[in-house]
Each structure stands twice: as C-alpha cells, then as structure tokens.
Amino acid sequence: MPFALTDEQKLLQESVDRFVERDYGFDVRTRLAESETGWSAENWARFAELGWLGVPFDEAAGGYGGGPVEAGLIAEGLGKGLAVEPYLWTVVLGGGLLARAGRNDLLEELIAGNLQLATGFAEPQARYALHDVATKAERSGGDYVLTGQKAVVFNAPSADRLIVPARTAGGQTESRGITLFLLPAGADGIALRPYRTMDDGRAAEVTLSSVRAGGDTVLGEVDDGMALIEPAIDVATAVVCCEAAGVMQALVSQTREYIGTRKQFGVPLSSFQVLQHRMAEMFIHKEQTQSMAYMAAVRAAAGDGPAASRAASAAKAYASEKGKLVGQEAIQMHGGMGMTREMPISSFFKRITMIGSLFGDADHHLDRFADLSGGRTG
Amino acid sequence: MDLDISAEDLAFRDEVRAFIDRSLPSDTREKVRRGLKLTKEDHVNWHRILHANGWGAPGWPVEYGGPDWTPMQRHIFEEETGRNHCPRLMPFGLKMVGPVIQAFGSDEQKAQHLPKIASSEIQWCQGYSEPGAGSDLASLKTRAVRDGDTYIVNGQKTWTTAAHWADWIFCLVRTDDTVKKQEGISFLLIDMATPGIAVKPIITMEGGHEVNEVFFDDVVVPVSNRVGAENKGWTIAKFLLGHERTSIAEIGRSKAQLEKLTEIAAAEQKDGAPLIDDPRFREKIARAEIDLMALEMTLLRVVSAESAGRVPGPEASLLKIRATELQQELGELLMEAIGYYSHPDTPEAREFGWNEPSVGPDYAVSLSPAYFNLRKTSIYGGSNEVQRGIISKMVLGF
Questions:
Q1: pLDDT digits (tens, 9 = 90+) for B184-204
Q2: Is the pTM of this model over 0.95?
Q3: CA B204, CA B373: separation in Å to the nearest integer?
Q4: A36: exposed, middle or buried (Cβ count in 10 Å: 0-12, 13-18, 19+)
Q5: Cβ of A306 under 8 Å from any chain B Cβ?
Q6: Any A CB within 8 A of B368 CB
Q7: Rounded to whole angstroms, what are the CA distances from B58 to B24, B29, B50, B74, B123?
C-alpha cells in the first residue's frame, strides 16, 4: 500500500514523538542552543541507545537496515521539537557518504555515538552547485595537498572529521575530477572560523592551506566524487524535506492554538473567516510537503538515479516555497508576539526559513527538476 | 494629466539632495546603507542637523517652526532622505504627538512641547497597544483614575518602540469603563521620569531591541497633561490615522533597497555568471521594480489629491499594505540573493566599527536579520488585516 508505514516505522515514529514531547520542551531546546557546542552530548548518547544513529545503515555495517524513509521519519519528529542535534550532518549526510564509500569501520563509531562529521559541499563562489569546486588537491608523491575554502560548513565546529570535496582533475565546474577526502578536523593546515547560524545551529568557514592528505583519506574513487556526493545529497535533501514537514506541522498547530485562544473584539481570532481560510491553506501546504517529502524518501530508498534526484528536487522546490509561506503566515497570525525571540513560533519560523536554502533553494531545484525531466512528465 | 514634476519641485529636490550630500555624517550614512545598528544619537544628531537648517519639522506649518512645505515637497523630502541613506526621523514626536498637540492641545502644551519636538531635544514614544489590545485597540485597559488635579495611572503598554530612548510617552488610557469602549478613552502626556514607570525590553527574533513593555504603577500625572477633553481620546487616535500617512509608502527606502539588490545580484555568482543574468532572478527583480512603480504612481496620485486639499482616507490603508509587502518582498530577495551566506549569524559584524573581515561578503551580514525584522511591518501600525478591514468598510461599504 503506498505510503502505509510498517509496524517498525510506526514504532520508530512514536518513539521520536515521545522523546520530543517529554524531553524537548522549548526551554530545554533554548538552553541547549545557548550551550557551548550548541547541542546535547547526552541526547546524542540517547539517540545511540535508541538505535536512531544506526537506523539508516546496513546490518553489515552495524546498522538496523533502514534507509532514507526511516531517517526521514526521525528528522520529521525532531523537526516538531526543533531539535538542535546534528542528526542531518553526522548521520544522514556524513554517514551516508561513509556508507557509500564502504567505510564500515567508521560507521561503527558513528552508530555508537562517538563520531561527529561535517561535509564541505559548498564553496563561496558556487552558490548551490555541487560540481563548482575550486578547492584543489594536488598530487605530491603518494599524498595529496589540499588548498581552498569551504563555505558555511554545518556542524564543522563539533566535527571529528571533515569530508572535503576537492578537485583532482578538470576545470572548476566540471563534474568529473572531484575527489572526496576524509580528513581529521585537527589536521595541519585546516583553519575553522566558527559561528552560530540564524536558526541556532553551528557552522564554520573552513580554510585549507596546504593540507597534506594520504592516499588512504580518499573516499570512493579518485576523480569520481560526484558519484558519491550527488546521491548522498539527494538523500539528505529528502530527509530535510521530512524535517520541513515536521517544522510546518508545529507552525500550523501552534498558530491554530494561538488564534483559537487569542481574543480581539471580544471573540477568538479563529472566528474570523479570513484567518480560517488562511489557516486551511497552511494546513494544505503542510500536508502536501509531507507527501512530497515521503515520496522523495521512498524514491531515494529505491536506489540512486534520476528518479531519486527528480523526486528530491521536486520535494525541495515544493518544501522551500510552501515552507516560506507557512512560516510567514504563522508569524503574521501571531501578531507582535510572533516577532519576539521569547515565543517559540519565531524559532520555528527561522528554521523553516533556513531550510529553504539548504541544498538549494526553490529556484535551484525547479531548474534541476526541469533539467532532469528533459521535457518529460510523470 | 502629466507625470512630470514642476521646475520648482525639481529645484527643491536638488536642494534636498545637495543638503544631504553635504550634511549627513558619513558614518551614519554608512550604517544606514549597510543595515548596521543605529544608536539613538544617530537619529537625534541627524534630526538636529536638519533642525539647524530649518527642516527639523518637515510636516509642520510655519507657526510651529515647520518649513510650510507643500504635500509634494514633503513627499520629495521623504523620498530623497530615504533614498540617500538618512536615518528615519523618529515619528512619535514629529508625526504623531506633535500634530495632535497642534490640533487639540492647550497653549501651554504647545509652548511646552512643540519646540522641543522640532529641535529633537525631547524624544517621544507611543503608548497605544497593550497585551490584550492590539488590533482591537479600543479595548485597552490601562486606567487613569482622577484624584484632584491628577490622574493615577495603572496598567501596561506593549510593543512600545523606542521607549528606552524616550523622555515622554503619549498614552491612550481608560478614564471611564461604564460606557461604550471607544467613549471612555483619554489622551495623556506622561513624563517617563515620573516614579512608577518601568521599561522592559522585548527582544525580537533577530536579536534586536526596538520595542519594549512599559509598566505603570500608581503613576501620578497632572490633569493638565491631558490633551483634548476627558473621554475624547479616541477622536484623537482616529485623527492620527489619517495624518501624514503618505510617508508610510517608504518609496525612497525601497528604491535604495532595490538598488542594493541589483548591486548584490550583480556581484553574486550562479553557474559562473552573475546572478542578475539568471532569468528567474532577473524576473523577480523586475517584478519588485514594477510593484515599486505601481506604489509610487499611486502615492503621487494621493499627494496630488492632498495638494488639492483632500485629506487621504482609506488610501492610507492601501499605501500601508502595499508598502509593507514591498519592503518584505525586497528583503526576501536580498536574503535569497546571498545563498548560503544567509545562514551565518554574526551580530558583532552588524555593529559599526567592527573591523574584522566578515563571514562571506560584507553586504551579507545584515540581510537575514533584516528579513526577519521586516515581518513586523505587516503587523505594526494597524496590521494589514486591519487595513484591509478599513478598505472593505470605508471604500467597498461592506
């Protein structure tokens, strides 16, 4: 049956919802976001205990044999509580790349909760193009020497290892000739400029100055890094769309609650039809984002290829556009209260805004979807 | 009908431009241009510079120290100051309580307050909204109870912009709760230094401090500080709705933002070419420019009607809605233009004088905070829902 969750998936969903409801109140979340690392090592250990860190990986790698759908369900649940733990960066993207490269040794560490990852998939000039890589890796004996800059590397301040695409051949925007390197975050020549992000995450500008990397640091095949990173980003895109659906659900339910209780002119705001209809629109956008996100996750689970890429781009174009509308409407209907940092709704709004451009904004994915479709529909 | 402004008005525009060029402090211009944090001194200092030139109270008649400009000249002044990166003149004295005192105040009140508003010696803030009275302003509960020659004021105001900078606050207070809610409201001028007033900051989502809560605990206010008759405060509130509302269009500032957007889109790269050459993005800029044009042409029609002696009514609501939506649209495009550099939150880089290199391009640091902050524009000053209600009622007759 399309879209029917298995019993195991339902259990997973319930366990994430329970965690968020019981242990992830907004005040807790605020405290974690303000802490030194910006997230909770204690929660991370619990994620490991609950098996969430191993959910998307093969049993051979010590995982639980799930995939993008299960990761998406977790992200959706965490999105409802606006969890600040770097699940997307370490497990979904970083772990996804390690799995594709067959690095089961490191996956074990990751699944146990002892490894944090960050991936430098963006460069200052590249906007959202993964293949625009100016960072160079030049051969030097059996080693490589990496030089370049990576922009807005999410979770870099907490990462034990960095995954860095660098050019080993070809021109700056060629898809061929990119190689992925797995580097210790503290390697000589790596400099981080850490900062907070608008939605209370952590990231850094990463500068590589003649970083020496042995041949064994290469993930996957030399010159063929795109074969790894493009599908891995598609999966992460599907998963972040699931998170967007969770965030949108919270935006809708909190706004519903607010206009149902806030009285003006002697009646609840919810008695005004203009607001009822606008909330109905928000609900529709949230439902359809969820549908698109699940579709993208299911396509990704079926294997890499144009179908998964098209689905990811369709879902992301949709989620970026509708997420923006739902967020803006949620703030508007909260009135002045929605503008305050104190009110949770503003943090949900900031997260949905920032998700809008993660892995590419609506325009980027519209273009990509059209390119992948080649005039074909269905 | 033609679209050209007169030779006199053109000469006036040149005069305003030349004055700004000569007199606006360069650091202030830089802060406004780059969207950096402005201090109270930036606002006050610019106001005093204008005052020294006889332009401290642009909308006021000559008898109160104004330049006695025509509606067109006022519009030109607003546009030029906005477009050329001048700080906003705080509206609470100049555009709100000033005109109220001129229309309804006693001679003593005029003498006491008007010169100090025009010269920016005294800063004002507006005590209207309350926690339970936002769109439904008339349901306000802050009470003023008569006690001889004084009122004793108790209650709370909220969303009070610049209360932390203000010397005085003008308030709508309830003086009679036995009558229809609009009929029991009075308009009081209150010295912020009076014992019993407490100001508590409200931090907005991007981290800024513009608005406050203001608490009144047995605050003693002389009856002579009431403007107009007791229980006639609602008339004054309504008077303000139609007063000097054309400046709400923010044409000059939106033009400056559009220029900035064009510059940034030319500097940003997409697929190895400037973002501004991307058909999708180009079209969005064009759309924003057309929206701006539509607003400007509508505004000019309103200004023209004003010149013929008509007071704008529901047109003010139209201008408010479209102007705020346009500001938000431009803010959104600016954030969109910078791609991943919309993510870093570096508040220190939004302070003037921060000398370290920024994360990402210099122009990026204030754009996401501005996008978040601009959400307020469709909420404040009578939410856009309230404005649509006014159009429905006053124009469409529903």
A1: 999 999 999 999 999 999 999
A2: yes
A3: 7
A4: exposed
A5: no
A6: yes
A7: 16, 20, 9, 7, 16
pLDDT at residue A298, as a whole number: 97
- Both A94 and A191 in one domain: the answer is no
In sequence order, what are the residues at sequence separation of 6 or more whose Cβ sits closer than 8 angstroms to the Cβ of residue B241?
Answer: B316, B382
Q: Which residues, numbered 171 to 190 in chain A, qualify as contacts with chain B under a Cβ-Cβ cut-off of 8 Å? A: 172-173
Kindly determine whether residue B379 and residue A339, on different chains, have CB atoms separated by under 8 Å: yes
Determine, for residues B379 and A127 on separate chains, whether the beta-carbon distance falls below 8 Å: no
User: Is there a single domain that holds both residue A209 and residue A87?
Assistant: no
Say how far apart CA B229 and CA B226 lie, in whole Å: 8
Instruction: Give residues 371 to 390 of B whose Cβ lies within 8 Å of A.
Output: 371-372, 375-376, 378-380, 383-385, 388
In a domain, A53, yes or no: yes
In angstroms, the CA A305 to CA A234 distance is: 10
| Domain boundary residue, one of A170, A201, A224 | A224
Level-2 CATH architecture, domain B124-231: Beta Barrel (2.40)
pLDDT of A378 reads 43
Q: A354 and A234 in one domain?
A: yes
Taking the C-alpha atoms of residue A297 and residue A300, their distance in angstroms, rounded to an integer, is: 5
The segment(s) of chain B belonging to CATH 2.40.110.10 are 124-231
CATH of the domain at A265: 1.20.140.10
Beta bridge partners of B252: none
Q: How far apart, in whole angstroms, are the C-alpha atoms of residue B287 and residue A137? A: 43
Statement to judge: residues A318 and A265 lie in one domain: yes
> What whole-number distance in Å separates Cα of residue A297 and Cα of residue B221?
65
Residue A355: list chain B partners with CB under 8 A.
Answer: none
Residues A74 and A195 in one domain: no
Domain containing A358 equals: 227-372
Location of each CATH 1.20.140.10 domain in chain B: 244-395
A181: domain CATH number?
2.40.110.10
CATH label of the domain that carries residue A51 = 1.10.540.10
Contacts (Cβ under 8 Å, ≥6 apart) of A131: A173, A174, A175, A178, A226
- Chain A residues 190-219 within an 8 A CB cutoff of chain B: 193, 195-199, 201, 203, 205
First-to-final CA distance of chain A: 20
User: Tens of pLDDT along chain B (398 residues)?
Assistant: 778 889 999 999 999 999 999 999 999 999 999 999 999 999 999 999 999 999 999 999 999 999 999 999 999 999 999 999 999 999 999 999 999 999 999 999 999 999 999 999 999 999 999 999 988 999 999 999 999 999 999 999 999 999 999 999 999 999 999 999 999 999 999 999 999 999 999 999 999 999 999 999 999 999 999 999 999 999 999 888 666 677 789 999 999 999 999 999 999 999 889 999 999 999 999 999 999 999 999 999 999 998 898 877 888 899 999 999 999 999 999 999 999 999 999 999 999 989 899 999 999 999 999 999 999 999 998 899 999 999 999 999 99
Provide the total of helices (H) and of strands (E) in chain A, helices listed first.
12, 10
pLDDT digits (tens, 9 = 90+) for B60-72: 999 999 999 999 9
Last residue of one domain, picked from the residues A224, A247, A272: A224
Residues of B belonging to the active site: 244
Class of domain B244-395: mainly alpha
- When divided into structural domains, chain A yields a total of 3
